C-alpha cells in the first residue's frame, strides 16, 4: 500500500503544492474508507461509490480543498458531509480537531469504524443536517463542505465561521464549482475556483 500511496501523492503534485497535504495523502489509508469489494481501486485518482447514493471523492479534489484552506495545524474544523470519513481523516492530519456531520446514520457509523482502523482519534462524528452546521461547537476556524449547495451557501454555515476563518464548498449555480469564503473584517469574501462535481447537499425534512 505504501508504494500505491506514494504514486498517488506524486501524481497529485502537478496540481497540489502544499507538502503537508501531500504527506496526509500518503499517510491516510484510503483503502480503509472504501467498500471491501472496491479496495483494489482505493489508490486510483477516482471517486468511488460508498452506498446511500454517496461517493468517496476523487483524491485530487479532496487534496485541492485541503490546500486552499491553508491549514496550519491548530484549527478547529467543521466538516459537512462525512460520507466515507476520508475527507475528515485528511483534515484531522492537518488541523487540531474536526467535527464532522453526516445526514445518513449508517454512513456515519461506517466512517467511525474506518477512522478507528486508521488510528485517527481527533474527529468527532455527529448525525444531522449538515446545512445547519453544528452550532453547539461553533465558531470554527475552517469549514469544509463536501456536498454541493444549490444557488447559495447555507447562511447557518457562514454564521459559524470564526473571524478570519475560511470555508471551501462546492456551489451549484448552474455550473458546479468550488468557492473559497474568507470571513474578513469587512465581511465575507468569496473567490470562485475550479469546476467540480459533488453529490447535492441534502437537508433533513422538517
Helical content stands at 25-40%
CATH topology: Rossmann fold
Gap from first CA to last CA: 44 Å
Number of domains: 1
Number of strands: 10
CATH class type: Alpha Beta
Mean pLDDT: 95
Oligomer: single chain
Structural class by helix and strand composition = alpha/beta
What is the count of DSSP helices, taking H or I runs of 4+ residues? 6
Largest sheet: 8 strands, mixed
Structural account:
This protein is an alpha/beta fold. Helices cover 28% and strands 30% of the residues. The protein has 6 helices and 10 strands. The strands form 2 sheets. Strands 3, 4, 5, 6, 7, 8, 9 and 10 form an 8-stranded mixed sheet that branches. Helix 1 (2-12) packs antiparallel against helix 2 (19-27) and helix 2 (19-27) packs across helix 4 (86-94). The protein is globular.
Amino acid at each position: 500500500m505504501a508504494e500505491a500511496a506514494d504514486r498517488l501523492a506524486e501524481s497529485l503534485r502537478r496540481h497540489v503544492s502544499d507538502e503537508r497535504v501531500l504527506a496526509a495523502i500518503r499517510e491516510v489509508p484510503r483503502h480503509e474508507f472504501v467498500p471491501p469489494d472496491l479496495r483494489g481501486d482505493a489508490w486510483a485518482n477516482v471517486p468511488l461509490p460508498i452506498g446511500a447514493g454517496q461517493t468517496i471523492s476523487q483524491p485530487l479534489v479532496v487534496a485541492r480543498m485541503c490546500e486552499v484552506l491553508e491549514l496550519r495545524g491548530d484549527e478547529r474544523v467543521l466538516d459537512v458531509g462525512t460520507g466515507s470519513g476520508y475527507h475528515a481523516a485528511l483534515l484531522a492530519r492537518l488541523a487540531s480537531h474536526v467535527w464532522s456531520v453526516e445526514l445518513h446514520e449508517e454512513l456515519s457509523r461506517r466512517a467511525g469504524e474506518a477512522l478507528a482502523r486508521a488510528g485517527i482519534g481527533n474527529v468527532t462524528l455527529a448525525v444531522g443536517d449538515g446545512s445547519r452546521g453544528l452550532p453547539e461547537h461553533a465558531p470554527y476556524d475552517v469549514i469544509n463542505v463536501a456536498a454541493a449547495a444549490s444557488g447559495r451557501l447555507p447562511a447557518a454555515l457562514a454564521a459559524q465561521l470564526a473571524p478570519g476563518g475560511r470555508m471551501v464548498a462546492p456551489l451549484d449555480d448552474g455550473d458546479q464549482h468550488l468557492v473559497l469564503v474568507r470571513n474578513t473584517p469587512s465581511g465575507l469574501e468569496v473567490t470562485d475556483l475550479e469546476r467540480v462535481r459533488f453529490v447535492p447537499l441534502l437537508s433533513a425534512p422538517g
